[in-house]
Amino acid sequence: MKHLEIISVTLIVSILMTVAAYATIVDRIVAIVNHDVITLSELDKNVNSYMKRIEKTVPEDQLDAIEKHVRQMVLNELIDQRLITQEAKKRGLMATDRDVNGAITNIITQRKITHEKLQYEIEQLGITFEEYREEVRAQLTKRNFLAGEIKSKITISKEEIGAYYREHRKDYEGKEAARIRQILILLPRDAADQTREKLRMRAEDILQQLRQGDSFSMLATEVSQGPAAKTGGDLGFVEKGLMLPDVDAAAFSLKIGEISDVIESPIGFHIIQVVDKRGEGVKPIESVREEIIGRIGDEKMENKFEEWLNEQREKAHIEVKL
Q: What is the pLDDT of residues 253-292, one digit of tens each?
């Protein structure tokens, strides 16, 4: 009997030690970043969340191989996140609870969903709402850091703007476009031949009125069934290739001020007038200066940030225990 008791006690102790050991494994440290640690459970949670986002777009037989890559990528991101947070704390750039609340409110407003719907979607990714809040805080903190410590130190010269403009000239080539007015008589779907001919004759009558000098915009307002009837049929500038083929061909063969014949298309009968034309050519640098500054700035900021991260990785005490 006593022997059985000893066995029972030994078994219980063994089980408790196994459970304790398992708990330790689950929450063991996988990386040390200066005075902060990253645990296995934190890494697993982030990896699982990422995999849930992509699993429907990846073949099932490739998931295991991709997960190994994702695990290393997520760990690197967590390490970088720790480095940014540590520096942001030193410089007073941490996102506040108010910042986080505001960002989440903006997300809900922009997506036109309820708070409950957002919370449900987050839980489907395997994370809690509080963990999601911390992810948002990390993103906002990074944004604060970039704006305060990186972007503020970036300068862009006139020479750089000019060089970028020359190197990316194709990006600023304007396409041929015509400003047109249109009168459209809609053709009902599956219209009988008699109906089709009746509508064509109506369009021909309208064209005759135009040839006799009636105002195109006035007639468009009165009779057109097109989308711009209320504005005299003015469709504004339309780039070549964006209209129905026959309408497009007519628009770019007419001279400014000319009126087309009646054009039949699958949706009805069109009469168009070319009001103005804009030829192909490169947009002047002054009209795209701000866009270029934005592009150069983003590129420089990304490079500067990567340089800063590399420096921090070199200086920091980082120990990976995977």
A: 999 999 999 999 999 999 999 998 877 667 788 888 998 9
Q: List, in sequence order, every residue forming a beta bridge with 270; answer none if it has no partner.
A: 184, 263
Dump pLDDT digits (tens) for 176-203.
889 999 999 998 888 888 889 999 999 9
Spatial contact of 219 and 175, defined as CB atoms under 8 Å apart: no
| Residues 6+ away with beta carbon under 8 Å from 49 | 125, 126, 127
C-beta of residue 81 within 8 angstroms of C-beta of residue 31: no
AA identity, residue 277: K
Helices 285-315 + 63-91 axis angle, to 10: 90
Cα gap 148→135, rounded to integer Å: 20
- Tens digits of residue pLDDT in 120-165: 988 888 889 999 999 999 989 998 988 888 888 899 999 999 999 9
Spatial distance between the Cα atoms of 256 and 181, rounded to a whole number of angstroms: 11
- The continuous run of DSSP H or E covering 312 comes out as helix 285-315
The identity of residue 270, as a single letter, is H
Please give the full DSSP string across 69-113, using - where no structure is assigned.
HHHHHHHHHHHHHHHHHHHHHHHT-PPPHHHHHHHHHHHHHHHT-
Taking only the tens place, the pLDDT of each residue in 21-48 is 444 445 799 999 999 999 999 999 999 9
User: Rounded CA gap, 208 and 221, in Å?
Assistant: 17
| pLDDT for 249 beyond 80 | yes
Report whether 75 contacts 38 (CB < 8 A): yes
- The one-character DSSP state at 168 is T
Cα 87 to chain centroid, rounded: 29
Domains contained in the chain, CATH given: 28-154+306-320 (1.10.4030.10), 176-279 (3.10.50.40)
Tell me: the pLDDT tens digits for 308-319? 999 999 999 999
Scanning the structure block, which residue is given the tokens 């249109």? 182
